[in-house]
Amino acid sequence: MISVKLYMLLIRASLRSRMQYKFNFFFSTAMASCVHISEFLMVALVMMRFGNIKGWTLYEVCYLYGVMMISRAIYRTLASDVHHLEKYLVSGDLDALLTRPVPVLLALMTQNARVLFAEFGQGFILLFLAIKALMISGQIGWSVIPLTGLIIVSGATILFAIGLATAAAGFWLTRIESLQNMTEDASQTAARYPLSLYPKWLQGALLLIVPVGFINYIPALYLLRHQGGIGMLLGTLAVAAVALWLAMRFWRLGLSRYQSTGS
Q1: Which of 5, 158, 182, 199 is the most buried (most CB within 10 A)?
Q2: Where are the transmembrane segments (predicted)?
Q3: Under the phi-then-psi rule, with left for phi > 0, alpha for psi from -120 to 50, and beta for the rest, what region is 229?
């Protein structure tokens, strides 16, 4: 509880410092909204023209997209600079975090915090439209709403675990931007759509190596398509717990090997 209170205190301080530049905040939010809307509209227009894609309807894809966006927004809001560890390693700024009387990871997570209003807003809109349409059609019931909240939390946990493990690799590699492009950016983009669209080898990679498929696709098979039984949902929660445990172990190992740049 002390760590949670300290985390919330540091997050509030970080958010207050960023809000000193209000124009930059609102402008960046507006630009992010335009980018995310245009990305989804391209897919929506294609599906509206050609109908289902391998049996997946527009609203089902909309659901996958919304879950991924909100999960990512939670991860990037609560642990923004985990994704930017490389700059701390290259500049030697990580040394300053080591001298603070708080755990290094906690200090890193609270640096430069910002709420991704654009991603949260679009994600909730997409989920609202998708769930409403699927409930009207009788495909899903009211139980999908609390279960969706659960998989969003587990999805944010998986994304945090992937980001933390990738960041920890920086203690050996230092330059990890290209690795992050694969494990975080590219994999998240791919997982916004049904994995059944991809070849088997890529499906396996997105489920076993970088388990982004468990963020939305696997639970959606159970929630939306009633496939696989409750084990699909329980498996998702288990993957989130194991991924977080492994990432924390890898982080501690990497931190123990850290050597300052001396700058």
Answers
A1: 158
A2: 21-50, 56-75, 124-145, 151-173, 201-224, 230-248
A3: left
